[in-house]
């Protein structure tokens, strides 16, 4: 049975997913805590590349649309248990060189006070076509 808090957190994840698809950075950041952390899908570290704090996370989120101007996250499925949430979706986007990426992905969230505190992104390593 889903609790009232879990229902509100699922709505938060749906709002967050919709904001990505609308390329709406202000709504994305409204979903994040002041001390937010984002672990990107790629980078030199064990967790990809980590961005800490609102300014760094905002810039990292915005770069997704710079790298993939037509980026979309579709077929979203969201669930929450306690202070953890998961969103599954299909990422689609075209790079500047014309190659397309289409792969399933998962975001694992840590939630705090009705917002996203940590976003940890994982995406299948499928070659561009």
Automatic annotation (TrEMBL):
Sequence ranges assigned to domain SnoaL-like in this UniProt record: 14-116
Domain of life: Bacteria
Cross-referenced SUPFAM superfamilies: NTF2-like
Pfam families found in the cross-reference section: SnoaL_2
Name this polypeptide is given: Transcriptional regulator
